[in-house]
């Protein structure tokens, strides 16, 4: 009787999970289909090549220009800066949390990291505007402190918790498997971390990088406040614009059904394709590490 009841509960749980998975998949497919549908009209007026490789975005002029290369480069530039900041700091923090803190302190830090991950991005952007932008303007003789570097630093700080959370989860399991045997064999903690923990944790580290990059390239408000929002080719200490910021700034003023409106949806489609390509590249190298 108990086994039959347990089997029914398992079947019910499986059915619920299957339904939720199906519903999530259908929703995602609908979103992608809608973006694709709204993007097609712009490609009848502008070629895909010109839309992606052109450098002029001027949707309100008599001869409107719809090209998003500056926004593509701005998104990639700030995201890679963010990764260069968040990955080393995140891995270092994860090692410290897992191996150099007590159990009670470790759990407290994990809770704090989770809370930071939930902080609205506009808060990070506002702090970046008040601190970083002001610092660059006063100390680097810049006319305005908004720049790609400021955007990258803000994104880097925002994505550190993503890296920490993912890597700590992996390193905790590795620590439980190696700490006792390493202690018995007289292996030092630094040797264990360098030669055992980091190699075994590479998949968790890679997953953290993917999550951090995806978060960074899709971020809107924080970057919008500190990058300057100029549709020009990005420079480290110059203004630029990202695709999410472009969509957020102009979608409200774009007339529904206009070329401007469809161009913004096409920009979102390009962002999705970029994310897909970069994730495929990451997973390709991740699969290579399995051998």
From TrEMBL:
One of its GO terms (cellular component) is plasma membrane. Residues 72-282 form the ABC transmembrane type-1 domain. It comes from the Bacteria. Pfam families: BPD_transp_1. The chain crosses the membrane at residues 12-36, 76-100, 112-136, 148-168, 204-227, 261-285. GO terms for molecular function: phosphate transmembrane transporter activity. It is a multi-pass membrane protein. GO terms for biological process: phosphate ion transport. It is found in: Cell membrane. The keyword Iron does not apply. InterPro entries: MetI-like, MetI-like_sf, Phosphate_PstC, Phosphate_Transport_Permease. Keywords: Cell membrane, Membrane, Phosphate transport, Transmembrane, Transmembrane helix, Transport. Part of the binding-protein-dependent transport system for phosphate; probably responsible for the translocation of the substrate across the membrane. Belongs to the binding-protein-dependent transport system permease family. CysTW subfamily. NCBIfam families: phosphate_pstC. This is Phosphate transport system permease protein. It comes from Clostridium collagenovorans DSM 3089.
């Amino acid at each position: 009787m108990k086994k039959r009841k347990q089997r029914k509960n398992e079947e019910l749980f499986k059915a619920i999970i299957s339904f939720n998975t199906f519903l999530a998949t259908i929703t995602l497919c609908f979103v992608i289909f809608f973006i694709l549908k709204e993007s097609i009209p712009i490609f009848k007026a502008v070629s895909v090549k010109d839309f992606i490789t052109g450098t002029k975005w001027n949707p309100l002029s008599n001869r409107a220009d719809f090209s998003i290369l500056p926004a593509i480069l701005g998104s990639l530039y700030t995201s890679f800066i963010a990764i260069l900041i968040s990955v080393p700091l995140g891995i270092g923090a994860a090692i410290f949390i897992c191996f150099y803190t007590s159990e009670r302190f470790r759990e407290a830090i994990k809770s704090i990291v989770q809370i930071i991950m939930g902080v609205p991005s506009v808060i990070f952007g506002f702090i970046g505007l008040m601190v970083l932008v002001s610092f660059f303007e006063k100390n680097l003789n810049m006319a305005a402190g908004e720049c790609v570097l400021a955007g990258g630093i803000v994104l880097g700080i925002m994505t550190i918790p993503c890296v920490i959370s993912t890597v700590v989860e992996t390193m905790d399991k590795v620590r439980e498997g190696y700490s006792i045997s390493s202690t018995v064999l007289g292996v030092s903690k630094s040797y264990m971390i360098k030669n055992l923990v980091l190699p075994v944790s590479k998949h968790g580290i890679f997953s953290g990088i993917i999550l951090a990059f995806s978060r960074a390239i899709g971020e809107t408000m924080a970057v919008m406040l500190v990058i300057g929002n100029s549709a020009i080719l990005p420079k480290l200490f110059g203004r630029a614009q990202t695709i999410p910021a472009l969509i957020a700034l102009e979608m409200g003023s774009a007339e529904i059904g206009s070329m401007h409106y469809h161009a913004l949806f096409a920009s979102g489609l390009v962002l999705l394709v970029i994310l897909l390509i970069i994730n495929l590249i990451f997973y390709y190298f991740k699969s290579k590490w399995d051998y």
